Amino acid sequence: MSDFPADRTLRIGTRSSPMAMAQATMVAGLLRKEQPGIRVELVPVTTQADRWHGDLAQVGGKGLFVKQIDAMVQGGSVDMAVHCMKDVPGDIPLPQGLVFAAVLARDDVRDVLVFPQGSDLQTLDDLPVGAAVATSAVRRRAQLQRVRPDLAVVRVRGAVGTRIDKLDGTRESDTAADAAVLAASGLERLGLSHRGRQVFSVDELLPAVGAGVLALECREDDGPVAELLGRLNHERTMAEVTAERAMLEGLRGHCNSPVAGYCATGQDGLLSLRGMVFTPDGSAFVEARLRGEPGEDPAALGARACAELLRQGAAEIIEAIPH
Q: Which residues carry this modification: S-(dipyrrolylmethanemethyl)cysteine (predicted)?
């Protein structure tokens, strides 16, 4: 292990949203703890996806959250990026020359139901017929409508704080909704966990591939940065997310594809992977539940799960959904 050069400042590219800045600040703190005295600079950027307030599918999907920052890492204007792994496209390879040098230990992967300030409601079952539930994820929409087809699931964009403000109706222009579904990890990182009422189990709402995982990306040929970031890598999480993303890559799902996947490590050290592909309204789906074998590469487990989903008709479901 060698120290990061003392005369070099480590520049972290990050989205400028409060959530992204909080995550990048946390990573900077971990790096300073790992190597005291290191100089770290945050380089915030407002991406095209952040500026676009319509449907992301119209401008290239949620991969736009990472595309611009990836180009900055490639070009050398920053040395590394902190990405939410669930936002990194799984149907295309990483940009040339970039690698995930580390992933942090996984945070809570579960989804949470949030109600407007002052509401007495506590659970999904408490919502009346026809109630409006706000979410940005097609994965959540499909699973919510699978169990409550009567709900009006409405699209909402923006940072977590903005979504909660809209739910609370703090401005006259805010779209009224009766509840919203958000990520437990996001609420926790912003100190808003108290706003959650019902926490859905992974059996009730299967998470997104890469949920709760922060990935640290850098240039493959930048040895000092790759080595430093590698010290923060959480091996169990890396194995789990490798299996999930191998499944997603094989499915070739686009940003409008309701694909969910979650891999966990058992007490025996073996991986268990569950994957699902839904029609947009959740009325039909295919599912795979597989256990890893001793010594099996996590990517091989993901490939097996993908093959099982494809055998059941996942490709036909995905291809029938407009991009």
A: 255
247 pLDDT higher than 60: yes
Per-residue pLDDT of 108-163, as tens digits, reads: 999 999 999 999 999 999 999 999 999 989 999 999 999 999 999 999 877 888 88
Same domain, 46 and 115: no
Q: For residue 138, what are the CA distances in angstroms to 26, 135, 230?
A: 29, 8, 33
For position 254, what pLDDT does the model report? 72
Residue 99 sits in the same domain as residue 13: yes
Q: What is the CATH number of the domain that holds 285?
A: 3.30.160.40
Rounded-to-integer distance, Cα 163 and Cα 136, Å: 10
The number of beta carbons lying within 10 Å of the beta carbon of residue 130 is 9
Tokens, residue 18: 């409060």
CATH number at residue 159: 3.40.190.10
Is 120 an annotated catalytic residue? no
Question: Is 302 a residue whose pLDDT tops 90?
Answer: yes
State how far Cα 10 lies from the chain centre. Answer: 25
SS (H, E, C) the chain: CCCCCCCCEEEEEEECCHHHHHHHHHHHHHHHHHCCCCEEEEEEECCHHHHCCCCHHHHCCCCHHHHHHHHHHHHCCCCEEEEEHHHCCCCCCCCCCEEEEEECCCCCCCEEEECCCCCCCCCHHHCCCCCEEEECCHHHHHHHHHHCCCCEEEECCCCHHHHHHHHHCCCCCCCCCCEEEEEHHHHHHCCCHHHEEEECCCCCCCCCCCCCCEEEEEECCCHHHHHHHHCCCCHHHHHHHHHHHHHHHHHCCCCCCCEEEEEEECCCCCEEEEEEEECCCCCCEEEEEEECCCCCCHHHHHHHHHHHHHHCCHHHHHHCCCC
